[in-house]
Specification:
75% helix, globular, 155 residues, mainly alpha
C-alpha cells in the first residue's frame, strides 16, 4: 500500500490538483493575464500527449495483441459506463431535476467518449505498460468516432 501511494505521488497532476483545490477552497482566483497562458499550455499538453501516444504505439506489436481481451474489456467499460451514467442521470432526474434536457443528453454521451490521453502519461510515471495504455486510448478513440454519432441520433 505504501509503495502504491509513493508511486501515485510521483505524478505531477496530483500536486496540480491539490494546489487548484487549495486555491479554490481559499477563494483565491487566478489573474486575468494567466487565462490566455493556461489555454495555450492546455493545447500544448494535449498535442504532447498525442505525440507520446503515437510514439508508444510504434512499439506495440499488433499481431501479438490479445484482441479478444481488448474487445472484452472495452465492451465491459462501455456497458458499465452506460449503465452507471444512465443510473446517475435517472436519479438526477427523479430527485433533483437540476440539469436541463440538453445537459442530460450531453451527459448521456460521456461514457462513449474516448479514454483520456493522459492515461498514457500516468502509465509512464507509474512504470506501467505504456504501449497497452496507448492501445486502449487508440481503440476507444476509434470506437467513439462510431458510437457518438450513432447515439446522437437518439437525441
Amino acid at each position: 500500500m505504501r509503495q502504491a501511494l509513493l508511486r501515485v505521488f510521483k505524478i505531477p497532476f496530483v500536486y496540480a490538483f491539490l494546489l487548484a483545490a487549495g486555491l479554490r477552497w481559499g477563494d483565491i482566483s487566478s489573474p486575468d493575464w494567466l487565462s490566455a497562458s493556461a489555454k495555450a499550455f492546455g493545447v500544448a499538453v494535449s498535442i504532447g500527449g498525442m505525440l507520446i501516444i503515437g510514439m508508444n504505439l510504434t512499439e506495440v506489436n499488433f499481431k501479438r495483441l490479445n484482441k479478444r481481451f481488448l474487445a472484452e474489456m472495452m465492451g465491459i467499460r462501455l456497458v458499465a459506463g452506460v449503465l452507471l451514467t444512465g443510473l446517475l442521470l435517472f436519479l438526477e432526474r427523479q430527485f433533483f431535476g437540476w440539469l436541463e434536457e440538453e445537459s442530460l443528453h450531453m451527459m448521456a454521451l460521456l461514457p462513449l467518449f474516448p479514454i483520456a490521453a493522459n492515461v498514457t502519461l500516468f502509465a509512464s510515471y507509474l512504470d506501467a505498460d505504456e504501449g497497452a495504455t496507448a492501445t486502449w486510448v487508440l481503440v476507444s478513440m476509434l470506437l467513439s468516432l462510431l458510437l457518438i454519432p450513432l447515439a446522437s441520433l437518439f437525441f
